[in-house]
Amino acid sequence: MKKIYLLQLFLLLAISASAQSSSLEHLPIPVLKQKLAESKNDTSTIQLQIALGRVIIHQSGSGNAQADSAFNLSVQAEKLSRKVGYNDGIIDAMLLSALCYNKKGNKAKGFQEAQQTLAFSNRVKNNRGVAESYIVMGHHYDVYTHDGLQTRMLYNNKAITIFRKEHAMFRLGSLLKDEAELLFLAGQKTDAVKLLFEALNIDKSIGNKQIQSVYWLIGRTSRDMGDFTNALKYILLAVKTANEVKDTTLLACSIHYTTAAIYSNLRDYDRAIPNALLALKIARRYNSPEYIGTVTLLLASVYTRANRLDQALVLLEELKKYFIGEPEDLTLMESIFSNLIYAKQFKKAKPYAEKIQLALTKISPDDYSQFELSYSSLAKYYLGINQPEAAKIYNDLDTKIVYASKLPIAIINAERTHYRIDSINGNFKSAIVHYLNAQRLRDSVDNVTKAYQISLLSIENETEKKNNDLNKLKKQAEIKDTKLKQTQLIQKIAITGSVFLLIITALVYSRYRLKQRSNILLTKQKSEIDRQNVSLQQLVGEKDGLLYEKDLLLKEVNHRVKNNLQIVMSLLESQSGYMQNKKAQEAILESQSRVQAIALIHDTLYHTDQIAEIALGPYIADLLDSLNNSINIGRDKILIRYEVDDMMLDVSQAIPVGLILNESVTNALKYAFPAGDQGEITVLVKQSDGEMEMLISDNGVGLPADFDLFKTDSLGLTLIKGLTSQLRGAFDITYHAGVTISIKFPVISTIIASQKSV
């Protein structure tokens, strides 16, 4: 646990945040690891390794294990950078190694590594590397000593000069925040704010939305100067910006902590408590003992001042697991002690007074901050229990420290305590002196605050003026640029127009010469075309004649085939007259109907202009009519219905379709309705997406229960299966409540009229 929470903890956060060398370092560690796993072995891999290493060593609570992990990443990055010849990667990897040495406490080795990086950067003439080396070399020096602080600032200023020259705006803005922190430590707080406003302008100019840290630093500095109005203004801007960029890091913890502290200074405890609770929630999520301790001490103080002492004591009791060791135990005891004194719980405070007095004998004499807090609280305690002599002893010790440390607010409190002690003892002359000292110092502090407010207002106005001037210059530059572009455009148009005019003139002349040559060529070509047209017309005439003869021959063939089939039908009919066997007569009749199905196609082709396709609707109508007049004659109870899409079907498919339909309807007429039963036969023919489906169904007696489609030796079914195979289709038969035969096959060529006939 750090000894001085309120100063060191948040200072280190700001410095580590401002030391970011790239925007990648804003990303969380899991995201960086995922991107690194997905990257190839190129410069992007190196940049991710460097960013991940820097984030790891700068995270809260990091120690030797994290430093070792970051060091391994630096070694990998340097090796890959040297392999691909990437100087920026070599520099960043060497500097990451230096930071790792610093993190592990080997600052001499870290400084040496940074010096080697500086030498390498100078050798390869990499100014960015030179600047980054100066920054890391500055980390060798302790900012809590005067000489160390001045040396760190010297190195930072060298880097700032280079970044300004190189126009490295992201790094310049980042380093200006770092330098502002150092100026804050040096007591040059107005100068620090100037740098912060410059950093703010730079970040805005480059579109960096992560500016909450700048607002926070301005707000924190204003609070330290006693300017709570401006402190609240800028800290609320920090909160707003952090919410906009969804910042949930420890920086957000610092922002909400400072917000709570400012509200507490303004005695607005109702607003201070939610901000302190939010800061504590973030600190606990990161499991950072330093942040948890610092925020808890503030929240307990606010609870006490809001008359919620019990909650304050519960919080401080929970803090014991984080405060281990004599300085930390004393810090916790002093916090509990001071809260009890504020609540005037002097009996409960008594044991802590005794423990604090004992603990003060065990801590380092150099821990002035802890001595000052403890002496001040003990003086107030003894005043509270009406022991002015004991109070005077501790207040004198406190006064000696605060005057030596030049802490104005603490000096005022010590003088006021002197005033109260002297008043109780009746030493009014001394009391007045101490009162006047406190009042004079209070006026001095107020004057410093007013001077700071004036300086801040001046800086804001100056910044606004600079921004306005920059905007004017930008607008003027834009106007000049627009005019220049217009002038250049006019010049280009004039030059282009002249060039086009020359080109057009050349083209016109060229076209004229070309047209002359083309006319001569066209005349020759026209003569040749005319000659070829005469020959072509002769060929077309001969072709038309041949096609006409072909059509006549096909019609004659169809006519003769039909006549021959009619002869065959007549012969079959004559033969049936001489047959005494009924089955033989039926077989001849079936053959006759099959021939009739084929003959109808040839008759249709003969009487139409089509020689290769047949209209399926009329053909099926004629075929069913023929079957009705032959096989169904005298059986008026059986009704044959049909519904056929109007379409043309190739002859090669029409014949198998006709035969399948003939076989199916014939079988239905013969076997579906025994003993003259009433019934209906339905024929449906549909076409969709290049496929035709034919359904022939009846509502007759159906097939026997033991019927097996694959074992039957029926000639009709054998023909249907064979013809379906010829059509490359699928055949199916169902026999529930009658029989339904389904035939599906792809259509070769059709013309669909989308009309139905029944």
In short:
By secondary structure, the chain is α+β, with helices and mostly antiparallel strands. Helices cover 74% and strands 6% of the residues. The strands form two sheets. The chain has a six-stranded mixed β-sheet, with helices on one face. A two-stranded antiparallel ribbon has the order 1-3.
Give your account of this protein's structure.
It is an enzyme of class 2 (transferase). The chain has 758 residues and is of the alpha+beta class. Helix content is 74%, strand content 6%. It contains 26 helices and eight strands. It has helices at 5-18, 29-38, 43-58, 64-84, 87-103, 107-123, 127-138, 146-166, 169-185, 189-205, 212-224, 228-244, 250-265, 269-285, 289-305, 309-318, 326-342, 346-359, 368-384, 388-405, 408-425, 428-578, 582-607, 616-630, 651-671, 715-726, and strands at residues 613-615, 638-645, 648-650, 679-688, 691-698, 730-734, 739-746, 756-757. It has a six-stranded mixed beta sheet with strand order 6-7-5-4-2-8, with helices on one face. Strands 1-3 form a two-stranded antiparallel sheet. Strand 6 (730-734) and strand 7 form a beta hairpin. It is elongated and about 160 Å long. The relative contact order is 0.04. Residues 1-18 and 750-758 have low confidence and may be disordered.
